[in-house]
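Suppose a colleague, Dr. K., hands you the sequence of a protein chain of 288 amino acids and asks what its three-dimensional shape might be. Before reaching for any lab equipment, you can write down a predicted structure in token form. Begin with the sequence itself:
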Amino acid sequence: MAGMMSEWESGASTAPWLTPYELAFGHPYFEEERFPAILEEAEARGVATWSPERFLLLGTVGALLRELLPEGAGGEEFERYGRLLHQAYHFWAFGRRLYVVDEGVARGLVEATPTVGSWELTSPHPAGYLRLPRHLFWSRVDEGAAPEPVDGIFWTLVGEEDPMRPPYRRLDAMLVLGMRADRPGFGTIPIGTELVAAPLGHWADADARPEGRDFENILPGGELHRWYGLVTEGEALRLISLLFWHVAVFPGSIGGEEVPSAAGPTSPRELPPTALSFRRIREVGGDG
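The predicted structure, expressed as tokens, is then:
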């Protein structure tokens, strides 16, 4: 019927669809050959791969990037693809953890703006992918580009002595934009920062947009849907901090492991479902 929106268009469904990792790297060539070779070299040389600079100096990484990059690519392309490879490798190395953020959690954290106070940034796992509610957050790969929906956020936060525990030296994250069935790839916005720069050990309480309200809508008509914008790096860091804080304070908010349905997309405009198991980050009631 005219005026009706599909589940894909409305963003009502939280069923997990294909991840950008699966789209670009979910192949035995990476998972059984190239990523294990990177791991072997890093262990043999004692390289802390959580540092993007050290990761990109590995011979196996350089060789793989030369395979992936188009002929004649320059330093900018090498850096951009290298940052994506850095996230994909750690996503694989730490068990391909997928977390699906429920819409109520995202809206509650953005609109209620809880005061976090003194808290050391931690994450539910050293690396993973936060799948955001469909079409809820929008951003641009650069100032002149059209806004696109943010599919999710890769992160790498590896403990210096024990991968699962602080102290952490660095947070690296990457926003993934524009995941669509009619598009062969996706856009990325890399974010990397030393944790010594984090106020109070996190960004959840920071004012992240110099002009306007944090997370204010950037799409014409988007306020009717209560959509949010991610304009600055600080807003992305604030959102990551808020989500990690929610998980740390309410450990019951992470659901049990779920296995995706084998059903395919119901429309040519939909991406197929993920093949990865996942956990939901949910709202908590009562005393949590």
